[in-house]
Design brief:
The complex is a heterodimer of chains A (214) and B (350).
Chain A: E1 2-11, E2 14-24, E3 29-33, H1 40-48, E4 55-60, E5 63-64, H2 70-76, E6 77-80, H3 92-98, H4 110-122, H5 138-152, E7 162-167, H6 175-189, E8 193-199, H7 202-208, E9 211-213
Parallel strand pairs in A: 3-8, 3-9, 6-7, 7-8
Antiparallel strand pairs in A: 1-2, 1-4, 4-5
Chain B: H1 8-25, H2 33-44, H3 52-86, H4 98-116, H5 118-148, E1 149-150, E2 153-154, H6 156-180, H7 189-194, H8 202-221, H9 223-230, H10 233-238, H11 243-265, H12 271-283, H13 287-311, H14 320-338
The chains are: A alpha/beta (214), B mainly alpha (350).
């Protein structure tokens, strides 16, 4: 599980987050809702470890976030942030394979290849896996990034939980893909995954979430 | 796309071999295949070269072509690494000040040591020159990076502008050093600022070659992490990469190999821009293939350019930097045009 204790964070004199204590349990679909600028994404960045200068503590299964090595964390935790940008041409399957990077040393193993093709199939990306990522539309890019993030934590870890954090994952998607994305995320919660998504569409949130945080 | 073609690397290597043999054969003195084989045979039997052609091959042509190929590989690989580091395709050691800083460091110690005593000078050649080049290159690169960095972003505009300034400092420093050099043997300003392989020796080949070999192997180990960095620093961190450590190491490695090469052959611009650009079009951006492909192609192209430098106005020799800039600068302009740097106000993330 993931626990945040008394998180306080301010930029300059502006208080962004105040005394936030939450438990995120595996098996639940946790959604964080709020209007623009309310600090949702900042909160996500804090418990992901991207922002360090906050007060309070973030615990991954009782371990403080600062004490866990990034390489270890990356094996069981995937984060999809808002707009990953890429300025060089890479193919779709190369981007998805990046999700497996924490799991192999230099060359991907058989298991990594299998997982990638499973994810690509699940996300219906087979028809354009050889295409250049830069030529895709916004929604297509988002699907590829989602596939990359899923590939990272596709298999159950030997011990501990999996963590999947999604920061506004649905922004450029058609309605059918929005449902699809959340459906896939939901499947993950069945298997000991701590799932947290930052959302702003309250209708979709109510439909899928177990726990809503405003 | 060639990215999965298994003949790609063998063909590339074959082309490199062919161009190297041609570069050895043609020059002020023509060297036949017979001479080459004869010289190698004599060398391994521990005998003296059979004739003047064999001697030219062993003492002049071969080290020159080897140094040239190694330097080409270094410049191309450093281009790939720097572009990965800054996450931008229009960066290379000649533009961000590395080469100019290294040339200044090298010329500084070269001239100063000559002023002290002949003993110091003979020691300074192989040891101090690359070391000071490294110090100068690192200082210049670091200066450009930290001056161009604004909060978390490195805008390509400011990078290029600061690069111009630091380049100017480096070049004028080098110019000053050549000006005050009393030693008639001291190399001219043309040498440092335009580059040439005319002084190549086996010692240079060994020094530059061993540094290059070590750094190539290390940078290949970083190819996966560098790929992750293409997604952005935040993404790379989530994939388990310590981005600050990676950036620091790659910057030091790149500067080290560029500096050592620059110490002996001077500033050669634009190779680090042309080669990665062409290779990305052919095989994509995965560093695991891009690095070795750029290495071989860089060696190929610089050998070709050096052949041009020797033959175009033979028996006179054109500084090689003139040729690479003449070909590279238009490509640089095309890249600038394509990336909209000329229109946009903001910057890229780095």
């Amino acid at each position: 599980m993931l626990r945040t204790e008394k998180i306080n964070y301010s930029i300059g004199k502006k208080k962004i987050l105040q005394d936030i204590t939450v438990d995120f349990l595996p098996g639940e679909f946790n959604m964080i809702l709020g209007p623009n600028g309310s600090g949702k994404s900042t909160f996500l960045k804090i418990f992901s470890g991207e922002i360090n200068d906050f007060s309070g503590s973030v615990l991954y299964a009782d371990k403080k976030i600062g004490t866990i090595k990034k390489e270890i964390l990356a094996k069981g935790r995937a984060v999809m942030s808002q707009q990953p940008e890429l300025s060089f041409p890479l193919t779709v399957d190369e981007v998805v394979m990046m999700g497996r990077y924490p799991h192999f040393d230099f060359n991907p193993g058989k298991k990594d290849e299998t997982i990638c093709s499973e994810v690509i199939k699940r996300m219906n990306l087979e028809s354009f896996k050889e295409r250049n990522y830069l030529t895709l539309s916004g929604g297509e890019k988002q699907r590829v990034q989602y596939a990359r993030v899923l590939a990272q934590i596709w298999e159950k870890p030997v011990e501990g939980f999996r963590y999947l954090f999604l920061d506004e994952p649905l922004t450029s998607l058609d309605i059918n893909y929005q449902q699809e994305f959340l459906q896939i995320a939901r499947e993950f919660t069945k298997n000991d995954t701590v799932l947290i998504a930052v959302m702003h569409d309250i209708n979709l949130a109510v439909q899928f979430a177990d726990k809503l945080i405003f | 796309m060639l990215r999965k073609n298994k003949f790609f690397f063998p063909v590339l290597l074959l082309l490199l071999f062919i161009i190297m043999v041609l570069a050895i054969a043609f020059g002020a003195v023509h060297i036949s295949g017979e001479n080459m084989l004869g010289a190698i045979q004599h060398f391994f039997l521990g005998e003296k070269p059979g004739n003047i052609h064999e001697a030219v091959f062993l003492q002049l042509r071969l080290p020159r072509v080897l140094l040239c190929a190694i330097t080409g590989a270094i410049l191309a690989v450093s281009g790939v690494l720097m572009q990965g580091l800054f996450r931008n395709p229009i960066v290379e050691p000649g533009l961000v000040g590395t080469s100019a800083g290294a040339a200044f460091g090298a010329s500084f110690v070269f001239v100063m040591a000559a002023k002290m005593s002949p003993e110091v000078k003979s020691l300074a050649g192989p040891l101090l020159v690359p070391l000071f080049a490294f110090a100068g290159g690192l200082l210049a690169t670091f200066m450009v990076y930290s001056l161009a960095k604004n909060a978390k972003r490195v805008s390509i505009m400011s990078l290029l502008l600061v690069g111009i300034a630091v380049n100017a400092i480096g070049l004028s420093g080098t110019g000053f050093m050549s000006y005050i050099a009393r030693d008639p043997q001291a190399r001219s300003i043309t040498f440092w600022n335009l580059g040439t392989f005319s002084g190549a020796s086996w010692l240079h080949v060994f020094i530059v070659g061993s540094v290059a070999a070590i750094i190539f192997i290390i940078s290949l180990r970083y190819s996966k992490q560098l790929n992750a960095l293409l997604l952005g620093e935040e993404e790379a961190t989530y994939l388990g990469v310590d981005t600050n450590k990676l950036k620091r190491r790659v910057m030091i490695l790149t500067t080290a190999m560029v500096s050592v090469a620059t110490a002996f052959v001077g500033v050669i611009s634009f190779m680090g821009l042309i080669v990665p650009h062409v290779m990305r079009l052919l095989i994509g951006s995965d560093n695991k293939r891009l690095l070795p492909a750029s290495m071989i192609t860089g060696a190929f192209l610089l050998t070709l350019a050096d052949m041009g430098a020797r033959l175009l106005l033979a028996p006179a020799e054109i500084p090689i930097g003139i040729i690479t800039s003449l070909v590279g600068a238009p490509i640089f302009i095309i890249l600038l045009k394509k990336s909209n740097v000329l229109q946009q106000k903001g910057g890229y993330n780095a």
